[in-house]
Amino acid sequence: MKHFTSVKDVTNISALVEEVLFLKQQPYAFKHLGENKVLGLIFMNPSLRTRLSTQRASMNLGMNVIVMDINKEGWKLESREGAVMDGDAAEHVKDAVAVMGQYCDIIGIRSFPSLENREDDYAENVLNQFIRYAGVPIVSLESTTLHPLQSLADLVTIQEYKKTPKPKVVLTWAPHPKALPQAVPNSFAEWMCNAEVDLVITHPEGYELDEKYTWNATIEYDQKKAFEGAEFIYAKNWSSYKQYGKILSKDRNWTVSADKMKLTNEAYFMHCLPVRRNVVVDDEVIDSPQSIVIKQAANRLWAAQAVLKKILEHT
Ligand SMILES: NCCC[C@H](NC(=O)CCC(=O)O)C(=O)O
Ligand SMILES: NC(=O)OP(=O)(O)O
Question: Which GO terms describe its molecular function (predicted)?
Answer without folding.
Answer: amino acid binding; ornithine carbamoyltransferase activity
